[in-house]
Amino acid sequence: MSGTIPVITIDGPTASGKGTVAQRVASALGWTVLDSGALYRLTALAVLQQGIDPADEAAVADIATRLDVQFRPGEVWLSGESVAEVIRQEHVGNLASRLAPNPKLRAALLGRQRAFRQAPGLVADGRDMGTIVFPDAELKIFLIADVRARAERRAKQLIEKGISANLEDLLADMRARDARDTERSVAPLVAAKDAHVVDSSTLTIDQTVQSILDLWSRFLSTPPKAGV
């Protein structure tokens, strides 16, 4: 391992479970966790609250640079207001997905994301963690799941929170978001060349977490290549 602070990246499509998995992997290792998607959702929420035109790339990026954000265990605060539940609402997530291709916004958030790299280590989840934000990460995971399985998970989450959910609508929305994420010209959702693909379609959260911890253990036990 290099002398830098180690990073495990977990990228994948929406509702693949990467956020929950990242939290649990970080907890098991005693590391910091970065939910990069929350920064985009927070920007989207600020855009909605301030009535900014989402098509105004410069204005959106400016909001991102001035976000008054605090992350606490299980909590997210924006300008002194608890917004952990609000930023998980579908309309906020959809706007975040539409804002994500904005190159000015991505540049504005890049430094903030990299600042989360703190000892003893970082688990970062998102869509371009292993390809753009932390290309030197020691372990890169690309977490996938069948789109219907993901839609069913999201429906279950919403129903548990007392929010009505239509599976077919969620499925159509998820497919549209997948298309936006994978086809955008700036930092598209794609597995890094050195990423390990983990399919969680038929795995429990615990099984998915364990598979990643096993990969990390395997990485630690692998002797470095000569000259590295």
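(ticket continues) Second input and output from the same batch:
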Amino acid sequence: MIAVALVLTLTGAALAQEEEDDSPPPSDLDVSLAIAAQNGRGPVTNLPLPRYVSLKGSEGNARRGPSLSHRIDWVFKHAGMPLRITAEFGHWRRVEDRDGAGGWVHYAMLSGVRTVIVEEDMTQLHARGDEKSAVVALAETGAIAKLGDCTLDWCEISAGDADGWVPKTKIWGVDPKEIRD
């Protein structure tokens, strides 16, 4: 009799606790995003979050959630477009562009090749990471360029035949304190 009473008491306590908290249990996605937020690393790749990548093809669908059954909210249409990964879940990465638009993209649509977008019209590309060095080219707003080395304040970029250094403040696709060799 004592064993039965103990089981009933424990079961009753569990039921009482469930009645007090009527919120749904967290989904796998919720748990994955919470883990990533806590340690700053993706739960799938263990790479830093956020981080930058680029669009592999000339078109990529950004979905509302991490599966093909989710609705397409946005379509990226520029090959090499820099994107920032903010979360990961299975084979899916949540990305955003420089305007904050985005969604969940399948990882196969992304490349580790780093690119940037020029933010200011007629940005001067310099021969060295120095404002006083010779101007070797000009870049228009929205130009996509491959990212090279970066110091604390400058990055080397290249697009077509143009290659030069620009202040980090004139491009999107690199963190302000990021240094690349």
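Agent notes: Helices lie at 2-20, 28-39. The chain is about 15% helix and 40% strand. Closing as not reproducible unless the customer responds.
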